[in-house]
Amino acid sequence: MKGSAIKYERDNIDTDVILPGPYLKIHDYNELAKHAMEGIDKDFHKKVKPGDFIVAGRNFGCGSSREHAPIALSYSGIKAVVAISFARIFYRNAVDGAFLLPIEVEEDAYKDISEGDQLDIETSKNEIRNLTKNKTYKMKPFPELIGKIISAGGLFNYKP
Amino acid sequence: MTKTLIEKIWDAHTVVDEGNGRSLLYVDRHMVHEVTSPQAFDGLRANKRKVRRTDLTFATMDHNVPTSNRSLPIVDQTSAMQVKALERNCKEFGIELFDINSPNQGIVHVIGPELGITLPGSTIVCGDSHTSTHGAFGALAFGIGTSDVEHVLATQCIWMEKPKTFEIRVEGKRRNSHAITAKDIILSIIKRIGTAGGTGTAFEYRGEAVSELSMEQRMTICNMSIEGGARAGLVAPDEKTFDYLRGRRYIPENYDSLVEDWKENLKTDGNARFDKSFTLHVDDIVPQVSWGTNPAMTIDVTGRIPFPDEYAKGNVEEEKAAAKALQYMDLKPGTLVTEIELNRVFIGSCTNSRLEDLTEAAKVVKGKKISQKIRAMVVPGSQRVKKQAEDLGLDKIFKDAGFEWRESGCSMCLGMNPDILSAGERCASTSNRNFEGRQGAGGRTHLVSPVMAAAAAIKGHFVDVRELDLN
What we know:
- The complex is a heterodimer.
- Chain A is built from seven helices and seven strands.
- Chain A is an alpha/beta fold.
- Chain A has one domain: Alpha-Beta Barrel (Aconitase, domain 4).
- A seven-stranded mixed sheet of chain A has the order 4-3-2-1-5-6-7.
- The longest helix of chain A is centred in the middle third of the chain and has 9 residues, at 68-76.
- In chain A, 51% of the residues are buried.
- In chain B, helix 6 (182-193) runs parallel beside helix 8 (215-223).
- In chain B, the strands form five sheets. In chain B, strands 5-4-3-6-7 form a five-stranded parallel sheet. Chain B has a five-stranded parallel sheet with strand order 17-16-15-18-19.
- In chain B, 32% of the residues lie in helices and 17% in strands.
- By secondary structure, chain B is of the alpha/beta class.
């Protein structure tokens, strides 16, 4: 899975900035996508390309349980968020709805990746290759159940 | 084997234990609201599924409903559509709905306990992160997203990884329970453990200061567990819990025999071990005011706005975050908290909109006028709270002082209805999140207790509520 990094150098990126409250009334997912990250980055929808990754710090997606947050990112074209850690409900929503992959990395990897770096994420090897910098980082393996739900294509396709 | 209360409730609800701590849990109560449910109902329809337990599922509309005159139609068309969709879905699937004109309408986390839907020892889910509120009754209550809402509607079960247990002890006895509130206790906890301090855990709040809290105060504390990163937060039930629920509309017929069982079983065993523990003494807590853009960025009302390096204590990322927060909040380090001038005051939200919150705030307001530069509103948590407050004459106290007295709903906590801040406005708010833009794009939120908000409305700036003359 290849794409370029859109980097936010901050922790605690909350779901209110990923998708501000007033847009929770929108049902059309492509419309939601136009407002993704609007709380901290008004130009996000202009710069994001299909297949891109977001790279951020700790506790990504904290706050509200709105599934609209991973949906808006997903319909913007984001395939994965690479962060040091995630808030639980965002992580769960991303996986359950098969909207995007929440990928946890060590702080060194987060610091090393720059805006625009070309990344190749290979979940089968638990590896992220930085093609721009010619480096490889480890990603934390998905917990077993999460891995199964991801492989199945979301919660409703998962059969225990 | 000795167990914590969290583990006891978990084990009692495990349908399938997959090993490695993963379980399929049975859900006793499912609360539904208009914003996180439409796609879930669409999913049920698309797959020709029914709601498995309509008798355990309750719905209301709270997030986007206007708090102005309810006899008028909803002006915002997208809100009106969401409200209509919930009405249609509840009718089609046979779910009990407390609609906009119901005397039981209100914020989902206010009406659950109020109607006796929330019960000790139960598992509760809702498509809202503040579901942890119900933990005040000794329930294990989780916020979930829309996919899980659909899953629970269809199966009455949810896949969960077992949380680690985190004991939060608050020792001592409050000397001034009017000024040092449950809000100050929970903000003090989050300030110390951080917004991700509880990641992967469920909190059990314990200690003398917790036992001493009323049910409504316990709800304030459990409500903000999610702001400390926890999956859930609870307090073991006691006589206060059982008395609060007795006689409420939806409690089971065999309530008294259930109470006997709960007394016996719903407590952490004497020598049970928690995975983590944190202790705070209530004597170290003074009224709190948040200064930044997450709830851990909070200081004592007696303090000054911190310098980023002073706040970050050597953590480079935290220092950057603090500098960004100060810029967004337009605050200068070194400023006394009590010098911060305000434009707006909001008393409401699932954190602080219950009768006791309003009663305590009214004590501060009574016989006074709000500052001329302040626009202030009180939004009761439910229609029942509103009626009880009006029966006590609280509406008159607030209105005489210059507050707006509004209809129940989430209102200015999350800026989904017309109650929002304009860019640059600064608000003392009794809600739970001070995230950027949370109360309206460019709005600046300071989290405080209801009495602190009321005092700020009178003075036009923050004031230490302990120094206010109530006579």
